[in-house]
Task: structure prediction
Amino acid sequence: MERLVLRRKEFMLLQAFIYEHIGISLGDHKIYLVQARLAKRVKHLGLESFGAYYDFLVADKQGGELEYLSSLISTNVTSFFREEKQWEFLKAHLPSLLAKRGGKLRIWSAACSSGEEPYSLAMFFKEHAPRDKTYDIKILATDVSAKVLKMAMKGFYLPKVCSTVPSNYLHTYFSCVEHEGQRGYAVNENLKKMVLFREFNLVTGNYALFEQTSFDIIFCRNVMIYFDKPTQNSLVEKFYALLNKEGYLFIGSSEALTDMKKGFQSRSASIYQKV
Result:
């Protein structure tokens, strides 16, 4: 089969479909990125053009292909304990936060990708919550991609992925195992118990699911950069509504709320508190 070329008209159809169903706003300059990421999938399905793939998407009423498209379009770049200054801030404010909440914390890792962020949070709380008391700490981890969520729930990581995990954490919270012919590290069950993984689209998802839920901390890092301003504003408003008073919102170091603070106060670079 000859090389597939994404024509401008086909791109505009996919661009609108992705915005409506996934929430990601793709600029016109992303045409070659979309072509590169989708070409293999189009060929695998035996389709002759990106236009035929668009028709396939629209006809798929079960949503399975939309799920696959989400995993291809979204960039699942993550690592254990990234954004070091955020962890330092959280460590400094954890005792007062635990005291205010009576030892009960609820955390949301939004766009958790393959699980490094929620497992980092679980290890952090295991290590830094004072040892003289028992705490009730739970982490909800969501992502739009079922593919990466399966990886996250499996909790198996190659050594290079674990290079940013302190060696004593590796010894305490992971087991060295072989999986599908590869040696790596598997997250221990006692850590997994702190995390609940669920598929959720931040833009089109049904927030009524959170009616009985509120959070003390929300991590949503390096996600809003993919959305346009109205979508960013809407998402920040939803986060504000879901946070308890004085709860924290952590975003990516390349992001800022600026004109979208909506009742948040900046506490440090990329860290905001509901007031």
Observations:
- The chain has two domains: 8-73, 84-274.
- Residues 84-274 form a domain with the Rossmann fold fold (CATH 3.40.50.150).
- The mean pLDDT is 91.
- The chain has ten helices and ten strands.
